[in-house]
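*Target chain*
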Amino acid sequence: MSAYMIVQADITNPERFPEYQKLAGPAVQKYNGKILGRGAPDSVEGLWGTPVVLIIEFESVEVAKDFFNSAEYTAAREARANTAKFVMSIIPGA
């Protein structure tokens, strides 16, 4: 069953953030992640917590967790330090 990683991002250092992106993109691809949407949310009710949202589809919750815990994505998270604040959640598909 598919799983979806919801990423809420507040990019605090846009000059250094591309270092994270260069590492994160290939890591998503390695785990067959598919980016379904990214950008500023258009809230229709209530306030969203961050200015940028990313939704990534993975084959399963397990694969999404394998991606998150992988050496490749760990390196990306380290590159992201002091460049953005993320909240990342995984939800199973219906």
Remarks:
- The longest helix spans residues 17-30.
- The first strand starts at residue 3 and ends at 11.
- The domain at 3-92 is CATH 3.30.70.100 (Alpha-Beta Plaits).
